[in-house]
Design a protein that fits this description.
Chain A is mainly beta. Helix content of chain A is about 10%, strand content about 55%. Chain B is α/β, with parallel strands linked by helices. Chain B has 6 helices and 5 strands, in the order αβαβαβαβαβα. The chains are: A mainly beta, B alpha/beta.
C-alpha cells in the first residue's frame, strides 16, 4: 500500500509540475485602472511581464480594441528570465466617465496563447448634465423641464451660457449654489416634432457639453 | 487487513487528488478568467428577435468596425464620438422603444458602458445589452 501511495504522489506532483512548466509568460497584472487629471490628453498604463519558462516567447500580435488606444512593445521575442512591458496609451479626446479599452496579446506560448489586457480610465467630467435629454410628446403641454448642471470646482464657473440650435426652444439658467445650476428648457409649442441641441458653456471657459431637447410624436398604436 | 483500512485509503487518495488542482489554482490565481455572473439587463439574440420590430439597435463598436458590418438599422454610438453621435441616436428614438446595445469581442466592455450612460445621463429606460454582441448576432444567422 505504501508503494502505491508513493507512486500516486509522484504521479500527481509530476502532473502539477508539467502544467506549471508550460506557463512561460507571466503578467504582473492584466488589468490597470487609471485616474487622469482634468485636461490630460492621454492615459498611459504599462503591463509588465516576465518569461518564467525555459523557452523564448514570441509575440505574434498586439492589437487594441479601438483606434483611440495604441499599444507598444519594445521587443518581439522574450528570452527565458527576461522582463518587459507593453505600454497602452488611451487618447482621452472628448471621452468622459469610465473608459474600458482592451489590448489583445497573442504569443506562441502554448499554455496561454492569448492574453487580454484591460485598461480602465476614469475620465473626470468637468461639467455634468442630468439628464442630458429632455423630451415632450406632442400631446403634452409645453411646460419647462429641468436639467441639473454640476461643475467641477476646478472649473471655477460662476454661470453657464446655454444656446439652442433651434429657436423652437428657450432655455434659462439659474445658480442653485455649490457649483450647481438649474437649466430650464421649454418648447414654444408641442404641436409638431422638433429637436435641438443645447450647448452649455461655462463662463470660465473650458469645453462645452451638450444636451438634446425634442418634441416627439407619440408611439404609434396598432 | 485492519477494519476501516479501505475507507482511510480512499480518503487519502481523495485528498491527494485535490493537490494538483490546488497547486494550479494558487499558481494561476491572478490570471483566472472567471465568467461574469448573469446580469439582468442582458438579452440574447433569440430574446431580441422575439421582441418584434420596436427595437432601436445601438452599435457601441469603433466606427471602422461599424462600417465593416452591423445589425440592419443599427445606429453608431461609442464613447469616442459620444457628443456628435448621441443627438442622432436620441432623435431616432421613439418613446417606449427598447434599446439594445451591442459591441464586439474586442470592445466587450463598451456596450455596458454605453448602456449605463444612456440610462444615467440621458435618463432612458428599457436599455439592454446584447449577450455575445456582434459575434452572437452573426452566429445566429448560420
Amino acid at each position: 500500500m505504501k508503494t502505491q501511495i508513493v507512486n500516486l504522489i509522484a504521479f500527481f506532483v509530476a502532473t502539477s509540475l508539467t502544467g506549471i512548466a508550460q506557463a512561460e509568460l507571466k503578467w504582473e497584472q492584466t488589468q490597470i485602472e487609471l485616474h487622469p487629471a482634468p485636461g490630460d490628453a492621454t492615459a498611459v498604463g504599462s503591463f509588465k511581464y516576465k518569461n518564467t519558462g525555459g523557452a523564448v516567447v514570441h509575440f505574434k500580435s498586439v492589437t487594441t480594441s479601438c483606434g483611440c488606444t495604441t499599444a507598444a512593445r519594445k521587443k518581439d521575442d522574450v528570452a527565458p528570465g527576461e522582463t518587459g512591458e507593453i505600454t497602452a496609451t488611451f487618447k482621452v479626446g472628448a471621452s468622459t466617465g469610465t473608459q474600458q479599452k482592451t489590448v489583445r496579446v497573442e504569443t506562441d506560448d502554448p499554455a496561454s496563447p492569448v492574453t487580454i489586457l484591460t485598461l480602465r480610465a476614469m475620465i473626470p467630467q468637468m461639467l455634468e448634465l442630468r439628464p442630458s435629454f429632455v423630451y415632450w410628446e406632442n400631446s403634452e403641454p409645453p411646460k419647462p423641464k429641468t436639467i441639473l448642471a454640476k461643475a467641477a470646482k476646478e472649473l471655477h464657473a460662476n454661470n453657464l451660457k446655454v444656446t439652442s440650435s433651434s429657436g423652437e426652444f428657450v432655455a434659462s439658467v439659474s445658480s442653485i449654489g455649490q457649483n450647481q445650476f438649474k437649466i430650464e428648457v421649454q418648447p414654444h409649442d408641442t404641436s409638431h416634432p422638433v429637436s435641438a441641441t443645447l450647448t452649455v458653456q461655462p463662463d470660465s471657459g473650458g469645453k462645452p457639453v451638450y444636451a438634446t431637447a425634442r418634441v416627439v410624436n407619440p408611439p404609434s398604436t396598432q | 487487513m485492519r477494519r476501516g483500512g479501505p475507507i482511510r485509503e480512499g480518503l487519502v487518495l481523495l485528498c491527494l487528488a485535490f493537490l494538483p488542482a490546488l497547486g494550479e489554482t494558487i499558481y494561476w490565481r491572478n490570471q483566472m478568467s472567471w465568467s461574469h455572473p448573469p446580469v439582468q439587463d442582458e438579452i440574447t439574440v433569440a430574446q431580441a428577435r422575439s421582441l418584434g420590430g420596436s427595437i432601436l439597435w445601438v452599435d457601441a463598436r469603433p466606427a471602422e468596425e461599424f462600417a465593416a458590418g452591423h445589425i440592419p438599422g443599427a445606429l453608431l454610438l461609442n464613447a469616442e464620438q459620444w457628443d456628435s453621435l448621441l443627438p442622432v441616436m436620441l432623435n431616432a428614438w421613439i418613446p417606449g422603444q427598447k434599446i439594445i446595445v451591442y459591441c464586439g469581442k474586442q470592445s466587450c466592455g463598451a456596450s455596458r458602458e454605453v448602456a449605463r450612460r444612456l440610462r444615467d445621463e440621458a435618463n432612458l429606460a428599457n436599455v439592454f445589452v446584447l449577450e455575445g454582441g456582434w459575434e452572437a448576432w452573426e452566429e445566429s444567422k448560420k
